[in-house]
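quick one, 361 residues, struct below
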Amino acid sequence: MLHLYEYELPFQTAFKTGSSEYKTRKGVLLHYRYNNLDFLSEASPLPGFSKESIDEVLQSLTDQKKWIEEFLDGNLDLQSIRELINIKDLNLPSIQFGISFLSLSVLAKREGKTVYELLDKSPPEKILINDVIGHLTTPEMKRDIESSIKQGFKILKIKALYPLNDLPSLIGSIHEHYPDIKFRLDANQSWPRSELPAIFSLLNHLPIEYIEEPCPISDLSELEKIRSESNLPIALDESISTIPRLKKVLNLYPKLVLIIKPMLLGNILKIHETISQFRSNSKQIVVTTMLESKIGRSMTASTASLIGDPEMRHGLHTGHLLADDLLPDFKIENGSIQNLQPNPCTDSFSQIKTSYLKKLR
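---
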C-alpha cells in the first residue's frame, strides 16, 4: 500500500533565492507498506534550483499513485528501476530520485541484501561531511567558524558572494590559529568575470579546497580559461543540472571537482552508472543535499556513499537549518555521520512527526 503526504517544515531563518524567500521547506513524502514493513522516501524540488515546482510534483504523483503502487508490488529488479526514466508521466527529477530510491530499498529488503550490496558496494562505517557558514557579517562569520571547529569540522563551506570584503583576511586569520582547517568558497556565480584575476590573487595563498561556481559561464569551453587564471581548483555545482550535462562534464573534465545534488538529477541508478562510467573510483565527486527533510537527507547520504569520493567531505549537514523535522537528525561526531542505515528508506512511519504532514488522496 502506498500513501502520499505533503510535508511543510519551518526553516530556522528564511531561505533566500535570487528573487524570493521561503519560510518553510515543502516536499512530498512517499510511504510504502509491504509485509508489515515501512519504506519512506521523498520527492522534494527546491525553488530556485529545481526545474519542477512542488505543485507539479504533487499533481504527477497523485495522478500516477496507482501505477507506482503496482510497480512496487510487482517483480522489481535493477533493470525495471533503471527504466523508470522512460515513464513520461514520472519524468520530473525529484520524482525519479524518490521513486527509484524507494524501489531500490524495497528490492534490497526482498532479496535480503543492502542497497550497497545490490550495487556491489560496501556499507560505509561513516561519511565525512563539511559544515556550512552563511553569508553573514565578519564577526558573525568568525563566531560560526570557531563554533564549527569546536564541533570537529575540518572543512567549512562559506557563502562567498561578491564583493568578498573582509573574507580573505578572515580566512587568513583563522588559518593562523587553526592551520588544519580548509575552506570551500561558494560564489553562486556572483563574481564578475572581469574581476576574477584580481579575486584569485587575494585567495591563491589561502587554504581553500576549491571555489564553487565563481561566475556564470555560457559554455563549458570558458571553464579552461577560468581555471588557468587560478591556482585553486574550480568546482561545478549549478552548472550540472541534468544527467546529460553531468555526462558531458565527466567526459571533458575527468579531474574536475563535481558537486552532485541527487534530487536535482533524478534516477539513482542512472546517476550511479553515469559516475561509474567515467570515474570508477568516484574521485572528486562531492554529494550535497537540497535542504530536504531527514528522509531525503538519508537518501542523499546513501548516495554519497554510493557515488561520492570517500576521502572528501560531503554537504549533508543541513538539518540544523530547519526549526523542526520529520525525524531526528543524523548522529554527527567530529565532522562525520556515524551509524548510517545499511538500508535507507526503512524508518518506521510511527516515528514521523505527523503534525507536519497533509495526506494526499
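The mean pLDDT is 95.
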